[in-house]
Amino acid sequence: MSNAYNRPDQLSPELRRRVLDTARRLGYPGPDPVARSLRTRKAGAVGLLLTENLSYAFRDPAAIGFLEGLALACEDAGTGLLLVPANPEREDVASVHRAGVDGFVVYSVPDDDPHLAAVLERPVPTVVCDQPDLGTVDRVGIDDRGAMYELARHLISLGHRRVGVVCMRLARDRNDGFVTADRQHAAHFHVQRNRLSGLAEAFSEAGVDWSQVPVVERFDHNMASGASGAAQVLDKDPQITALICTSDVLALGAMTEAARRGLRVPHDLSVTGFDGIREAEAAGLTTVRQPVLEKGRAAGKLLLDSNERSRPRSVNLATELIIGKTSAAPRGGAEERWFGP
Amino acid sequence: MSNAYNRPDQLSPELRRRVLDTARRLGYPGPDPVARSLRTRKAGAVGLLLTENLSYAFRDPAAIGFLEGLALACEDAGTGLLLVPANPEREDVASVHRAGVDGFVVYSVPDDDPHLAAVLERPVPTVVCDQPDLGTVDRVGIDDRGAMYELARHLISLGHRRVGVVCMRLARDRNDGFVTADRQHAAHFHVQRNRLSGLAEAFSEAGVDWSQVPVVERFDHNMASGASGAAQVLDKDPQITALICTSDVLALGAMTEAARRGLRVPHDLSVTGFDGIREAEAAGLTTVRQPVLEKGRAAGKLLLDSNERSRPRSVNLATELIIGKTSAAPRGGAEERWFGP
DNA sequence: TGAAGTGACCGTAACGGTTCAGAACCAATT
DNA sequence: AATTGGTTCTGAACCGTTACGGTCACTTCA
Questions:
Q1: What's B175's domain CATH number?
Q2: Which site from A60, A100, B133, B207 is most exposed, i.e. has the minimal number of CB atoms within 10 Å?
Q3: Would you say residue B176 lies in a domain?
Q4: How far is CA B284 from CA A17, A114, A322, B258, B279, in A?
């Protein structure tokens, strides 16, 4: 029977026709994909674990780019892409257990997330993205630390010494406010931890006492958070000459707050982002561009040709420092004479 | 055994512990989701069929909004969302057959698409979106025809009589150029067909010979298409006072072309769109806003509570005419005295 | 003390396909 | 005529799980 559908060469055309005819007459809807998957041990789909609220993936431009790249890789391979809901509120690991997939891509979740643990227990290949190297599964990411270090060097060379930071959530608990050094080090989001540590290193080297730098955290990732985070930093220390945001979305929000306060960017305040999304380019933001689409595509490729037990691979994609028109030497800064526009 | 995982109440805690212990010792990875699906006849996922190149879904703002709404509905119900690749080039219906899902959502595909036919043959509930009412499955959409009629009335009341149109693809074959009346009527994309027919009706009523109106079609849906489409219309008839685009993305592209030609919008040329995406709002575009997120959510809800054999439901969501600053009375037009700004 | 009732546990039969071994058949060769 | 080879077709095993009904021990009540 299944031969009639899948192996036309294995039987005579006449029998095939007869089988298909009676099948249609009996109202047979064609082979059941689930039963087929059980037998062949291939689901024909890869799972994408997004710990964030599922709809978040469609709001964040960087996440959309990643999704697009991953979808492209899946399309090339002819497999589907299953978005696995993983609501962080109820610890509903069941969704991971219930997903019939040939492998998982894990995108930017906290490293202590129970869903991630559940994925790693499943006997399928996995690629983690923007995560620490687990040593046991493939990984794709960028050098967040190095890229942010480079951005910090840019600001330092412009003459900035008194700065503030707005970052995304650092752990699963909501903490909208200032961040202690401890919390920075213990951050469960690999990406944010490394970006902060790149900043800390560069500014420490430049003689800045990092523990005195105001770092504000926001749980939600949108422009409003960027604006309110910027407000909190500027209230704390109105003397800062640069505001460093760990994402473009936050930075764009920060720009609106600067405008609201009548601060001219970059004359009165430099603002920087991270990601290199289209909106940032349009705004001329100084930022680090990372190849989000390529990241998704690389994750998909890695997963889809998981050769039997080659040792875990780790891919780092290149980033590029984009110097836009939102960073300049601080007003009246000593260095202005040498580094100004 | 399965009880130990799924029905802790059916057995004593002691046995449960013992079972789970030996399971772990034997390296048992937990119940297999595919086998479970086979037995329970529930896949725990819904399929989304996008006939367009898969990555398209992540480029078009309206599609993203739809996806977000659908993802929200799925998240609420605790089911996954499977993106089914359906490359229009190779007629690869296998992807539809291979998808292990409890139902399908079909989003804006041509009504003669073989993938759609394949979905309808599958014995699972289906919701079509932006499609003609098939009478056999649930449907969600808007009144494209009526909404466009209303937009046309707005332009007519401003005094526009000589207009041009840029529309999205009308069928599966690529036809970048002028569109005959025949092709307009025979269009296989329900949405485009109805928008055009709303225009034709309104302008015909106003005494305009619709067959003389230049209508240009573009296969790809991006701003560049809008720009080149606008150029083609303006080359054909530089006298037009309004350019009607069947999507905001095309309209935004048309605006860039108008600017390139030194045409001031709306003074020299009115431009209108359709969808109500964020970028259009930012640009002050005159357009029709449709609730894309709600459309996705409605499709998901419809699918997920498919009560046994209720007769097919059809949902029409409300739209809203947004009069922005890209439409005004034509320069020197007779009506200007009464309707001008 | 025996019958009936209760709850925990276990064995087995599907679910619907794929695969593979071998039966049946036919033709050609020794 | 018997053996060989090749092709087409049939049947049974298996994939891993859950639903279901039956067994068994143990309690309860007459």
A1: 3.40.50.2300
A2: B207
A3: yes
A4: 60, 45, 30, 15, 9
